[in-house]
Design goal:
Chains A, B: It is an enzyme of class 2 (transferase). Chains A, B: This is Farnesyl diphosphate synthase. Chains A, B: Keywords: Isoprene biosynthesis, Magnesium, Metal-binding, Transferase. Chains A, B: Its cofactor is Mg(2+). Chains A, B: Belongs to the FPP/GGPP synthase family. Two copies of one chain form a homodimer. Chain A has 312 residues and is mainly alpha-helical. Chain A has one domain: Farnesyl Diphosphate Synthase (Orthogonal Bundle). In chain A, 68% of the residues lie in helices and 1% in strands. In chain A, strands 1-2 form a two-stranded antiparallel ribbon. In chain A, β1 and β2 form a beta hairpin. The radius of gyration of chain A is 19 Å and the shape is globular. The interface between A and B is large, with 64 and 64 residues.
């Protein structure tokens, strides 16, 4: 039993989600930053629709809790800002992935997707502006009002890491591989690479970013990044497993969707029993990476189990 | 007469264009940066198609020549990198603006647009990945091999300025205003704001970025930004004037396109004579801003005249 087990994990996740949403709401208000000419109402509304839609905020949670692991209390505001920036990138990717030219989804979390609530042009621009805003948030030292302001080199490391996780060699590249995989099925190594890019890179970055904000040494940054990689794999495997096994009613969406779309997944390739064993192994691996931090890492270990065991 | 008038301006512009294109080509090769997992071939090809298409490279020229004004010889490579980053942002905006949901253009500079040469999904992702790459280029201090490496605070100022010029309160916001203007005609103040955001912000930033790279004092940065604003206005006004007056054969594209699309422009509102007087005034204003720099500013003054007098 973890000592922190008295506070249910999901309550803690919710509390962090509310904190980052308050910040996201203030970053998406009508207040102009220096150098901005105007914030067009319709674009702002489309951005809010894509961001303030009640996600679990898992990635921001990982940033903030990874920072807290290294005692970044004085830098909590900066950790939240890095978390908000990452969530802007995650939400931009969902807005663009939902477009008719990509996955063509009308609904996300029971609400119309941005291009359905507005139009395609607004959805494209809202995604573009959110991606841009993410770098603005990280690079804006004028907003730095924490007790321990971030050194410029730390901000740069955050921005560079985010760019690399999100771009050509990370998430955007992974989405391209996912699109081509639908008519040119990848082999097992190809599936692993695709998933490491499309969903893994941002989750890995979330954990590493917390360590960067906290000013943790290089070896700890690397350890947290590896932890992030393990739970990124678990996240995707749990998702694929649900698609194979879940009953559609509990999941709240159609199952068997991957197979129908011709998407090869590891869970489909090796079967649900293999996938469950893998998930167990990934949680073990993630937890053992955090052993050096003892009880302080209890929350992050819970996060690893949560990611692997989620049933929707 | 400028002392540098012996070298025709367009030759100088071409030479700088080739220099930045060499860098862009190397940034878009198959070489993986640390942290990148793979560079998917099709995405890379779509990005190259959108970037290496023979533009005038006016914005990169302004970055490099503004840096050179402050004697940034030792930082020439860094000025080129900032210029390449800005060009990535400019090209991403063209790729997304050309999409069917936006301006729906099949051709750009006589070549198929990215969504015509590839498909819409590839064009959306190529734009996303170029925008992301721009911040990677600026924030990557590992690539710093100049004689006078950029301080981290300088890189941060470049990244923040780029984000603010390109995002919600700048270029992306301007594109949204442009789309809404087609069925809700703005007044004169609205047209000016729209243009300052859609095309002005990046040109203003180009000139300011050069001063930032060179480590120029705040007052010079502000002066160069104002110079950029003046030529940004001239750039748009010359464009609008051509649409009203040029003969379609010389322009190589249809004229009267703005009026047909219901786009209000200042040249259409006040007539060509007014527009020509304004252009003359803007070039005067831009040149007088550079008076303190004497003959060293001759190239940038030529750039202002070039922008105002271009006939295609």
């Amino acid at each position: 039993m973890d000592t922190n087990a008295e506070i249910p994990f999901e309550m803690r996740l919710d509390a962090r989600a509310r904190e980052v949403e308050t910040l996201l709401r203030s970053l998406l208000d009508t207040h102009l930053l220096p150098g901005e000419i105007a914030r067009p109402e319709r674009l702002l509304a489309a951005m809010r629709h894509g961001v303030l839609n009640g996600g679990k905020r898992l990635r921001p949670f990982l940033v903030v809790e990874s920072a807290a692991l290294f005692g970044a209390g004085a830098r909590h505001i900066e950790a939240l800002r890095a978390a908000a920036a990452l969530e802007c990138v995650h939400c931009y990717s969902l807005i663009h992935d939902d477009l008719p030219a990509m996955d063509d989804d009308d609904l996300r979390r029971g609400q119309p997707t941005v291009h359905r609530a507005f139009d395609e042009a607004a959805a494209i621009l809202a995604g573009d502006a959110l991606l841009t805003l993410a770098f603005d948030i990280i690079c804006d030292d004028a907003a730095d009002n924490g007790a321990a302001p971030l050194p410029a080199a730390t901000r740069l490391a955050l921005a560079r890491g985010l760019a690399r996780a999100a771009g050509l060699g990370g998430m955007a590249g992974g989405q391209m591989l996912d699109l081509t995989a639908q008519h040119d099925a990848p082999d097992e190594a190809g599936i692993i690479r695709l998933q490491a890019m499309k969903t893994g890179a941002l989750i890995r970055y979330a954990c590493e970013a917390g360590a960067i904000v906290a000013g943790a040494p290089e070896s700890d940054r690397e350890r947290l990044a590896e932890f992030g990689s393990a739970i990124g794999l678990a996240f995707q495997l749990a998702d694929d497993l649900l698609d194979v096994t879940a009953d559609a009613g509990r999941l709240g969406k159609a199952t068997g969707k991957d197979a129908a779309a011709g998407k090869a997944t590891l869970a489909a390739l090796h079967g649900p029993d293999w996938a469950r064993r893998q998930l167990h192994g990934l949680v073990e691996q993630a937890s053992s990476l955090l052993e050096p931090y003892g009880e302080r890492a209890a929350i992050l270990k819970q996060a690893a189990r949560f990611v692997a065991q989620r049933d929707r």
